[in-house]
Amino acid sequence: xxxxxxSSIDLNAExxxxxxxxxxxxxxxxxxxxxxxPIIKVKNGVxxxxxxxxxxxxxxxxGQFAAATLAHELKASDVKGRxxxxxxxxxxxxxxxxxxxxxxxxFNRSFPGNENGAVSDKLAHYLTTExxxxxxxxxxxxxxxxxxxxLPCSHMVWAKDKKQxxxxxxxxxxxxxxxxxxxxxxxxxxxxxxxxxxxxxQGKTLFTTELGGAGVATFETTQLAxxxxxxxxxxxxxxxxxxxxxxxxxxxxxIFVDMRGPNAYHSATHTGLxxxxxxxxxxxxxxxxxxxxxxxxxxxxxxxxxFAQQDGVVGVMRGFPxxxxxxVVAVIGKPYSSTDEMPENI
Length: 346
Description:
Blueprint: E1 5-7, E2 15-25, E3 33-44, E4 49-54, H1 62-73, E5 81-86, H2 91-96, H3 119-134, E6 137-142, E7 148-150, E8 153-157, H4 162-174, E9 179-183, H5 195-201, E10 205-210, H6 219-236, E11 255-258, E12 265-267, E13 272-276, E14 283-284, E15 289-294, E16 304-307, E17 312-318, E18 322-323, E19 328-336
Parallel strand pairs: 4-5, 4-6, 6-10, 8-9, 9-11
Antiparallel strand pairs: 1-2, 2-3, 3-5, 7-17, 8-10, 11-19, 12-19, 13-15, 13-18, 14-17, 15-16, 17-19
Helix pairs in contact: 1-6
């Protein structure tokens, strides 16, 4: 139990309530202060508990819209169990239009948190020790952020355990996106520091998305967030109605893009402005030019070419054009019509 974060509402009480997670803080302007994160609880009888989270990164907006809309529209009579909603985890980052908090913290690298740390650490600790344990499923809605633009997708990290993998596949399909991206563990990142990594470690059913990016929320990607969220909640059995597949909705079958290849990630080699040459979802061949880095201070200098390191389709492309060496500019994966076609190991 956290001694530095509390909820202003009773999360176990029946009915609908809106309040705040109250986090102890101390600022230059107020030695005794609190930092308040909005939280909504809707409970009706016995059933699963689903935790809906958005705004993990401040510049990813579709989830924030979808979670806020759900919080406004949901009635207790719609629910069979309990839904807890935090429409924006990273409030200060969202207000600033940035991925990270003003302190420089990436909230999605803050787990399991620290009860006596900074505000972000205290919030991560509360999720880890209070909200995750009481939840059966966790939904962490992302959308690429300013830096990248994804094929709007639900996605997962490949699991070695086949039972766990099947569970993750089912969650991934529930969002009804046209594409599903399958990733390895993030390069250079401790998976235990990630919000979904902690939820998965605790054995929770996990739903994750990347619904676009480049800091832009279109009508289409926002609607995908809202529709996918409701279908995922139906899949959990926590709201009325039966979940529907893409086929039942009259949509094309989804495409699975395997991003686990050793040459999937492509990075900038120079400083400049990156120009995408190949669009999202387009097929590429190894050796094909996928982007150009322009040195704008010296227009007489030819643009630096970035070449595809493997065959596949562009699953992720650059959003924000300004790059420095090491910035990822594209991720290329191999498409499959079924997960059964995907190799066990790469």
